[in-house]
Amino acid sequence: MDPLGVVSDAQARAGETLELASRYLDPSLVEVLRILGFDKAYRSASGSYLYDGDGRAYLDMHSGEGFASLGHGHPDVRAVLQAMLDTDLVDGVQLHYSVLAGMLAEALAARLPEGLEATFFASTRR
What DSSP designation does 113 have? Predict the structure, then answer.
């Protein structure tokens, strides 16, 4: 089910990943990846590992997103994401408030020091 063709386009253009990142995202990071030898063409990810086209596994030590602690494609996370999509719950934090945004902000506030109870979600390019 890919009525917009996004999945098929992404699969067809997977070989352009670093070129696209260098042109439209962050060329300096792509250069660092090349210098470190991390400019691999990963074909899949599962748990804590990335896999290249030859099936070689690489332990993913990146710590910036949820997969760092939960693993790539964690079945519980996938199930919750699918369940949320299936609910047709109105979501978004720019023009209106979302119950999900409120729940996330509440959970963050519970973990922050006293006096830090408000969250501002933002999107940035850099």
Answer: P
Q: Which CA distances in Å does 93 have to 28, 101, 123?
A: 31, 7, 11
5's torsion region: left (phi>0), alpha (psi -120 to 50) or beta? left
Q: How far apart are CA 119 and CA 66, in angstroms?
A: 18
What digits encode the pLDDT tens for the residues 13-64? 988 999 999 999 888 999 998 999 888 888 888 888 889 889 999 888 776 6
Q: State the alpha helices, DSSP H only, in 37-98.
A: 67-70, 75-87
CA dihedral 91, 97, 101, 106 (to 10 degrees): -150
Cα–Cα nearest to 59, from 67, 71, 70, 48 = 48
